[in-house]
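discrete fold record:
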Amino acid sequence: MAGITIFEFDTLAVLPSSSPNIVGLRKISDDVFAWLEAQALRSNEAGEATWLRLTQRHGRKAIQVKSFVGVIRCPNGFQIEVLPKLGKTNGEEDARHLLIEMLRCLGSFRHIQTSSAQLLARRMPLMEVFIGEFLRAVDHTVKRGLRSDYLAQQDNLFTLRGKLHMAQHLRLNLCRRDRFYTEFDEFSLNRPENRLLHAALRRALTWTASQASQQLARELCFVFADIPISDQSNADFARVRPDRGMAHYDAALAWARLILQDESPLTGTGQHPAPSLLFPMEAVFEAFVAKHLGRQLNPGLDLRLQTRSLRLVRHKEQDWFQLKPDLLVQAAKTNRLVLDTKWKLVDAKKANSKEKYGLDQSDFYQLQAYGQSYLDGDGDVVLIYPKTETFSQPLAVFDFPKSPGMRLWVLPFCLHTKRILLPPCGSLDQLFSQTT
């Protein structure tokens, strides 16, 4: 299946076949560009958070992929794999491996099997990795046994079975005394969980270009051949019951939800649906930091995620403007540290009042509000950015002149060691362990 691999914020454009490659532009066909342009315009008109941006490069119309990673699947089957921007240094394979490790921290993708994903990521595009993981999850479910359930049925039978429906029986069988119109329960595999897995298998079969995945998908579809395909996935997901003995369905259903409902991915709309597994890198980075930061905390400390207990102002006996820091460290339910993650590039060499390391003033305002509300203006607040070659050590502390008891730290988080780098002054040592 045709496709290209790009990184966050790369730019796509239509280039004549006779023209040389232009630095900073990736070449795509007219129909792919037209579809991407339509998606960008539709998102803008609807006021949605867009994953594409219309722009110009070298006098040409172009489209820039914003801070989203994953796979864009166009209606004609062309796939655009989008990898994290930090992976440009070490190449596509390392970037793909890193992204899969980070995606495992998202709740919907916690079922990615590390060992197999690491092997596949070295030689397969992301879409094939996702499909392969889904098929393995379904295969595991099948081997553990598909669950049946009692299904209510109505039929005109030769024998009395279950409950006789008198009105229907008299209407249909007044002259046929050998028939009984009855309602009865039949033990059947036709239950919502199995219908959903069958529908997801059929869709995955149309997506994959891997011979191994196609073969496994066909074998699994044969197992589900007598089970109807879910034609109302939302309704069937609402009917899913976490019964005893159904734990082996969890991974497969989690993947099926992503494939059928596009909860985490973004989906192209129009006459030709083009499912795209795209994830905002801000959310991926936040989940990755949250999972691993807790392991670095000293004993007796707890890490809370997405705390929503406080508001910024009170107006007419109503609390307005929710304050929701990404992470909050507590000791015995007492707030000790407020942290926020930012998927942005910091440059420690730009240490001047004009460039300000590439930091955003709005982020500082945000952390100041968090510190005043959650720490009563006395304590430490932290901005966490990914560690890069230009940001490998913590920046010097930032003080608030009007709040002398509050300090702001800008700290790097290493994606490979999965640890936050602490300032050398030891101000945060009482909270975090320095050992590996």
Remarks:
- Residues 263-275 have pLDDT under 50 and may be disordered.
- The chain is about 30% helix and 25% strand.
